[in-house]
Every structure is written in C-alpha cells, then in structure tokens.
Amino acid sequence: MIGRLRGKLRLKQPPWLLIDVQGVGYEVEAPMTTIYKLPALDEEVTLYTHLVVRDDAHLLFAFAEEQERLLFRTLIKVNGVGAKMALAILSGMEADEFAQCIRNGDGVSLTRLPGVGKKTAERLIVEMRDKLKDWQLSSSPVSAAGEGSHSKANDPADEAVSALIALGYRPQEASKYVMAVATGDMSSEELIREALKASVKN
Length: 202
Fold this sequence. Notes:
alpha+beta; CATH 2.40.50.140; DNA polymerase, domain 1; five-stranded antiparallel sheet; 5 strands; globular
C-alpha cells in the first residue's frame, strides 16, 4: 500500500497530478479541495494517498490532509459509491459542508453533486450519519498558493471543462457552468472552483 508521497509537483492538470519522487513519476488523481492547496510547479509537496486496485488498473488518489483521505475512505465503503464518485463529492463540497448535509439529512444539496441521485443521497445520509456524528472535521481555509502555476499553453476554460467532465459532469453541463462564471483573466483552478460552487447552488 502506498500511503504517502513526498516529491516535486511536475504536472497539475485537474484532477490529475504528477509527483516526481526521486526520479519516479507517480500519476495521481486528487479532489479540487486538495488541488487548491498545492504549491507551484516544481516545488515539493507531501500528499496522503489511497491505492485502489482493479482488474484493469491501479489507481492512486491523493489528498492534502489525512482527514480528507479518511472521509474518502469512509465514502467508498458506502454501497454504490465508488472512488470516482467519492472524488467528485470531495471536489464539489468542502468536508465540513458535506458533514453538515449528512447531519441535517439534506439530500437535496447532495443530489446537486455529479453522479449523486436521490437514492444515493439517501444511502449516504443513512450510512454516514453515525460515522460523522462526533467527527470533528478540520476546516482549513483554501490556499491560493498554487493558482496560476499551471502551464499557460492550454486555455483555462478548456482545462476547467475537462476537469468537470473528469469529475462526472456531462459535457454540456460542464461548459454551461464554466461559461456562467468565466470573467476576466481567471485561472483554470479559479474557474473550476466557481463552477463547482455554481453547480451545487443550482
């Protein structure tokens, strides 16, 4: 099991990252809550990881904080929630906001996340309510340190749309949300953040 990586951040193309650990490049997927906190490219980063082994692939998911990884691991134990959906949930909603939805039985807010239907939302509330009842979730402010550090070769709006599609949004939805929030010279990460907020509010 690979539990933690420490190395140089070589590529940041949400939700994918490439971490260079002493010459070995690890491709990982991370929720946007982690990507917002990343340093600039070529700087050192430490990430907590979770390895998913499938018949056709080994997938490595990375998180900025252990608490975030713990929530991910709790999510994937829920019937019908896989690693991709868990990643989308963590991207579309802060951990403390998610915990509040579970505690309040707020299925409506949960169904606004990509891939989460009414039945899945109900199952999340039922199966996770006890697990989150006494859980003190840390609520650290989002860091903007890594914003704008990605390659400028690609259009930020295109990158944002691609990231939303990878998180489970339909192409038309992804384009709609990105175009609705795009103003001025926004980075792809800023666009993704605002588009995710807009999708959850609608």
